[in-house]
Design brief:
Elements (H helix, E strand, L loop, with lengths): L5 E8 L5 E8 L4 E5 L27 H15 L7 H12 L9 H18 L4 H5 L5 E2 L1 E2 L1 E5 L12 E5 L6 H23 L19 H15 L6 E5 L6 E2 L4 E4 L2 E3 L1 H14 L2 E5 L7 H10 L4 E4 L7 H10 L4 E4 L1 H4 L2 H13 L3 E5 L9 H8 L3 E4 L6 H17 L4 E2 L3
Parallel strand pairs: 4-17, 5-16, 8-12, 12-13, 13-14, 14-15, 15-16
Antiparallel strand pairs: 1-2, 2-3, 6-7, 7-8, 9-10, 10-11
Bound molecules: 2-phosphoglycolic acid and zinc ion.
Length: 416
């Protein structure tokens, strides 16, 4: 009854209008579908997203990855038990055989792996979060990206993401409302100060105002939080995505119109943390700098230091970080490693070593809500899925609202 009958892929679109891979998995009675997301500020150690590099879609077509699902993966999954996620993911890893999914494409494997889990949950008539972990009950605090910079926006802000963190809320529903109210207050402030074009949005639904300096963005954010009356409930988080403003030649970081060494950049972060209620900083230094990250952990004692491009959801790199004490939290993106089982393994390794886990979307997203269920299943306590705007972002927030209602009195909310 739970044997896989068919696996079928097709090329669909992501939120930036680029092609991506969608996979359908069917058993006799059940069906599961999922879609691969796609990053813009991708880490160099991430699993490889297979692109056709042909004329169509400016080279971004994914017909090869689709072909790999329909002609290679499908054959090997047919007849397998859909509820054996680890076994199936192992087949995907072995079929690829490269260590970075460059043969089949991580876009092919991730969509398949997640569609398998969805089909399995459906065949057992369970919600996905409960199928992944029957004990799951913790709704995550949203890290809501309301000002976009870096590679996600056409402005001059070096830092990629300015997030509000309504951690003082009593429930997920309340945290979302608070974040939303601040988002709209911020819109008014930006419009008034910088004109109507300042509220155009970037890739993750946050505003992309024509600001130059980090402190300008933080000032308007603080103003929006104060005007809304949420100073107590709301803190701030940054994703610097600093590999995107690191200049290898001079070993400096181009930020706020100057070139800072890593030592000076850490001092700069110390100043920001003193002045603003920042509780979390992601990728403060470029993706190879395990030692520098360790300095950040030491010097910014009360701040969560998150590894995204540094760790790429890869157990080998997480182990390296544990050894060097380079990060206090793992940013978890399923498509960075290419299967659900490997992502869960990465989260478990991080948790066993007292690291926090932040489940994350990509800047190129889809209508898939899987990461919402995954965040609950992992009891992660934190999710990063953009502004409370644009359908591909609200899809995840709305799914968390449904899960919270479904869990009823069992639901808890907050950092883990
Ligand atoms: P990306 O951005 O999906 O473009 O990599 C998200 C992030 O850096 O966290
Ligand atoms: Zn990041």
């Amino acid at each position: 009854m739970t044997r896989i009958r068919s696996v079928r892929a097709r090329e669909v679109l992501d939120s930036r209008g680029n092609p991506t891979v969608e996979v359908d998995v069917r058993t006799e009675h059940a069906f599961g579908r999922d879609i691969a997301p796609s990053g813009a500020s991708t880490g160099i150690y991430e699993a490889v997203e297979l692109r056709d590099k042909e004329e169509r879609y400016g080279g971004k077509g994914v017909r090869k990855a689709v072909h790999n699902v329909n002609n290679v993966i499908a054959k090997h999954l047919k007849g397998r038990d859909v509820v054996k996620q680890q076994e199936i993911d192992k087949i995907l890893i072995e079929l690829d055989g490269t260590g970075n999914k460059s043969k089949l494409g991580a876009n092919a494997t991730v969509a398949t792996s997640m569609a398998v889990a969805r089909c399995a949950a459906n065949s057992l008539r369970l919600p996905l979060y409960e199928y992944l972990d029957a004990m799951s009950h913790l709704l995550p605090v949203p890290l809501m990206n309301v000002i976009n910079g870096g590679k996600h926006a056409g402005n001059e802000l070096a830092i990629q993401e300015f997030m509000v963190v309504p951690k003082g809320a009593k429930s997920f529903r309340e945290s979302l409302r608070i974040g939303c109210e601040i988002y709209h207050e911020l819109k008014g402030i930006l419009k008034e100060k910088f004109g109507a074009t300042a509220v155009n949005v970037g890739d993750e639904g946050g505003y992309a105002p024509p600001l130059k300096k980090t402190s300008q963005a933080l000032d308007v954010l603080v103003e929006a939080i104060e005007n809304s009356g949420y100073e107590k409930e709301v803190k701030l988080a940054l994703d610097c995505a600093s590999s995107s403003f690191y200049i290898g030649k001079t070993k400096t970081y181009a930020i706020d119109g100057s070139g800072l060494t890593s030592e000076k950049l850490i001092e700069y972060y110390e100043g920001l943390v003193e002045q603003y209620p920042i509780i979390s900083i992601e990728d403060p230094l470029y993706e190879e700098d395990f030692q520098g990250f360790a300095q950040v952990v030491k010097r910014l004692k009360n701040v969560q230091v998150v590894g995204d491009d540094l760790l790429v959801t890869n157990v080998k790199r997480i182990a390296m970080s544990i050894k060097n004490k380079s990060a206090t939290a793992l940013l978890l993106k399923v498509n960075q490693i290419g299967t659900l089982s490997e992502s869960i393994e990465a989260a478990n390794l991080a948790k066993r070593n007292k690291m926090s886990v932040v489940v994350s979307h990509r800047s190129g997203e889809t209508e898939s809500t899987t990461i919402a269920d995954l965040a609950v299943a992992l009891n992660a306590g934190q999710i990063k899925t953009g502004a409370p705007a644009r359908g591909e972002r609200t899809a995840k927030y709305n799914q968390l609202l449904r899960i919270e209602q479904e869990l009823g009195s069992k639901a808890r909310f907050g950092f883990s």
